Amino acid sequence: MATGKILSEVEDGIGRLIFNNPARHNAVSLDMWHSAEEVLKKFENDNAIRVVVLSGAGGKSFVSGADISEFGTERASKKAIKQYNQRVSTVNSFIINMSKPTIAQIDGYCIGGGLGLAVCCDIRFCSQKSKFSLPAAKLGLGYPFDNLKRLVDLVGPAVTSDITFSARLLDASEALRIGLVQNILDDNLHQFVNDYAVQISKNAPLTIKSMKFNICETQKDQDDRNLEMVKLLVDNAFSSDDYIEGRTAFMEKRSPLFQGK
């Protein structure tokens, strides 16, 4: 497993997953996808972690997509391509379905599978130098339906057509304008994201869990929505100790201490 190329940190209720392959602009191999999934599963099962941040090492790239140097072995046959795509899809789906908020901290190139990874996160922040692209059309690659749908849901079909047909680079300002990212930071991206994540971590976990699930359900076709789970998660928040703590803290004019129960 590519453990050294996938790093993890846990502090102040924040779980950080770091793609650590700066020599290749944090291009991701099949082994790295396996390792990333293992880290994310640990984060999901750790009640001390309330928010997850994904970032890239080296200060030049978030993730630049698949490691093209390994295409000869990892994506040379239909079987290999299917296995690789299934692994990427599994990780992306896991991120989407995590009960905890996910933030993409984008500093530099966010290309191909890196952009696909970023749009799976709930929130995206980037540095001014960041660049975005889906270069599949320049490489002759097929691009999965689920990834395209998430991009269409985020920026619309016309913008998605522009990005994918031209395979051009977008700068940070354009990414903000089309709604691909929520904010651009100049020199303090890491500190901003950390402070923002800490702010989330101090809020009521059960409320956030229900909100994230409900938001995800709004993106599904009406017949596919799990409205029973929507109601259950909302009811769980109202019947929790945290609801009592929130009301009590408000009346006592102090910050609440939520326990996630």
Observed structural traits:
10 strands; alpha/beta; 2-enoyl-CoA Hydratase, Chain A, domain 1; 2 domains; 49% helix; 261 residues
Describe this structure as you would to a colleague.
The chain is of the alpha/beta class and 261 residues long. It is built from twelve helices and ten strands. The protein folds into two domains: 3-200, 2-enoyl-CoA Hydratase, Chain A, domain 1 (Alpha-Beta Complex); 204-251. It has helices spanning 30-45, 71-74, 78-97, 113-120, 136-139, 145-155, 157-166, 172-177, 189-201, 205-218, 227-238, 241-251; strands at residues 6-11, 14-19, 51-56, 61-63, 102-106, 109-111, 123-127, 131-133, 170-171, 183-185. It starts with 5 loop residues before the first strand and ends in a 10-residue tail after the last helix.
